[in-house]
Amino acid sequence: MFQRYLTIDYGTTYIKGILYKQAFGSVAILRYEYLNIVPVSESSFDEYEYNITRFIQSFFPEEKNFTINLPADKFFIRKITIPLTAEKAVMEILPFEAENYIPYPVESMVVKGNIYNTKEDSSELVSFSVLKSEIEDSMAPFNRNDTSLKSISSDSVTLGSIVGYHHGKTLQETNIGQLDIGGKICILNAHKDGLLFHSRFFHSGGDFITQKIAEGLKIKYAIAEEIKTQVNFSIFEEDLDSKYKFLEKNHLKPEDMDIILNSIKDSLEDIVTEVERSLNSIDEEFFPSVIYLSGGGSLFKDLDKFFTERIGIQFKMYDFLELNSEIFINCLGSGYHYRAPKKQKLEFLSSDLGFKFDIGKLNLWQFKIHLSLLSISILILIIGFTIGFYLDEKRIKADKELLRERYEKGFKKKISEDTDVIAEASKDVNQAKKKSEIVRLFLDKEGILDIILELSNNFPPEEEFDYVLDNFAYDKDSIALYGRVNELSEVGKIEDSIEKSNKFTNIKVVNKRLMKGVNRHKVSFKIQFDLVIPSDKK
Fold first, then answer.
1. What are phi and psi of 480, to 5 degrees?
2. For residue 357, what pLDDT is reported?
3. 419-452 pLDDT, tens per residue?
4. Integer CA distances (angstroms), 318 to 17, 69, 165, 235, 471, in order
């Protein structure tokens, strides 16, 4: 059996998707695509729903199973300490503790938490709270009868699933950070021993750079975005040849280069400031030794070196994942999160949300003809069952009467209608057996099956040595056993096993010989013995 599912990452500039196939414990990426998000001006269309539908129909129209994330800025992310240690109790009280940190009634929210540290009398966790209405809105594009929405999580959580999955494998560091630079949102995660203990988002990223370039050059936003994406040289080194080619290709003046580079560097400095602010709030024992970069805003050449020099922590790119592309990192994280054990997930698509899902709902009125036929079929089935039950009762009663008549004819005595004929007949047969001379003389003797069972119970186990039993002869009270073993000494073991039984006597090896040209079971034997006859039967 196999399963296909599409993980979708709805960013600020692009929609990304990775199609997975999971079969027999292995997972493979079948396809991955991305598409620009198109602004929708008409009020009759929801931009999110329109772009999700457009993305699926463009690249994956045949897919039915999906996972999605909610952007980090839809969540209230808080660190909370709860004076309990049992995980179940912590999760039950979490919504009421989180209510002190969110500006909405807890009844309108879905609250989930990730425990990262358990002390003697308390638990520390990161809580994620989101409005139920936000979850409902995210489900709208999948509100079709032929689709199945498998998971809804948070960008912060699925990004962290990468560290959780690879910790102790590819990732050996104890304290690890993540910085995802998106279009308008940056996410900073921090982990200890693979567990997420800090998550924060702030407004910055690639779109802010584009806006500064557009304002500095006094050009349209779309043109500024195209210019930004063509900055494929290091902005931190003097690469005059690459910069000249860049200016020439985009018909820009030398002074425009300073505007572009300053726009990028200013935005990156803003990100540095926010990262340092977050790191200053982390205790020394949790301080990350390495931070991994992702997102479309991390594509500038040598950006990892820039952050390493400015912040003093080593920054790296994800060079160990199955897909080497920074813009698909969160899609990969969604796949890890979906495949993770239930206890490791922060899943917002669950039965305790407090509202009715529209996913996969059935409009039963569309199936009125089918339901009518089903109702008629059920009615016919009930009537047929009732009639069959009545006829069976009548037939059983007639069979019982016939059986009673045959009993009375065979045993020459009357029997009441309430008596169980079979039980009564068995009782009479057993009494007759006790009185029978044939039974007394012959059937009370040991049967072949009894002898075989006695031998089997005493034979050496097959694990002790290898043997084959070829023949078994039972004539009156004398028994002959023919077989083969690998060694002459093993014949004695079989003889010893027969002597353990008190049902056999006069046990002797009549014949044992080594067969030539045979590699296995090369010693044949014949053991003869008698059946012990009790004194009262002699």
1. -125, 135
2. 44
3. 787 777 787 777 766 665 444 444 455 677 778 8
4. 18, 21, 14, 21, 70
